[in-house]
Amino acid sequence: MKMSPTPLFNDVDWQPVIDAMERAEHIVLITHCNPDGDGIGAQQALYETLTSTGKQVRMHNRDGVPRIYQFLEYAGKVGRGDWQQPQWADLIIALDCGAFGRLGMPESFFNGAKMINIDHHASNKLFGDINVVDARYCATGAMIYDLILAMQAPLTASAATAIYAAVMTDTASFRLSSATPAVYRLAACLIEAGAEPWPISVNVYESRSLAGMKMMTACLDTLEIKHEGKSAWIYVTEDIYRNTGADVEDTEGLIDYARSIDGVEVAVFIRVDEHDSSRWKISFRGKIWANVGHLAASLGGGGHAYAAGCVLQGVFHDVCEQVEQAVSRTLG
Ligand SMILES: [Mn+2]
Predict the structure, then answer these.
(1) pLDDT at residue 10 above 90?
(2) Which residues are within 5 Å of ligand 1 (an ion), measured at CB?
């Protein structure tokens, strides 16, 4: 017996979003820099749903679509880099993006267009004209599922696949506490609608490049344990990029190995910006009780309680020291 699709949350007011989408003629869907499976999956699913209603829709991300998500049906339609058609859109929908700056677009990109901000980060800055921000959701992709139901639009196999990829990646394969019974029921509905868990997993998790594997071993070799075993640190330096030929996409998921060590409560991943060697991207993962969202916020960043990040400028040693002090405060 098939489950009848029900929304994950039925108290979310999608009507302002639906009205704005109905009124718009040219819609751009965008997610954050260095996009993850959630941003991409939400974007792909909403793209299919909106184009099937006859809207003119384009997708554009500063960093395009990572290789491991290229299997999604409309991945080839996502533009990257600078947006070359100012004034084209009358509506822009930002997905899974906690702050305007994380879109990586110049202010002029948004001239004159209405902005809808759909996201599940508690730290969201509410930068849209319409904001649907709800941290109860495990993924922005799950919000798009509820939006599709609210639109009374059909859930196609392609959209179900994209949403499954979004939910799978943002719940760390249904392992985080955000993977509630309702999320498992949602997954069942997605599978019944045509999402295939194993092929999706193979594409996302079992398609690592050889260069990426070399980077993994080089990174794991940098592992440091601090705070009497409660924090684990790994690093990506310019040397590692140079010696392995890997790129920033190959760093995806490495931090989970640091968190996986017994007794580690906070994992820290520090990587150099590919374009600016004095800029450091820092990711945090919490395991049981540490709130790394607060930790990242104390360093000017943001995110979720169990996954967050920030960007710091400076020399490596100083940056590490600053982060170490913040982690010390979190671990008490
Ligand atoms: Mn997300």
Answers:
(1) yes
(2) 38, 96, 140, 170
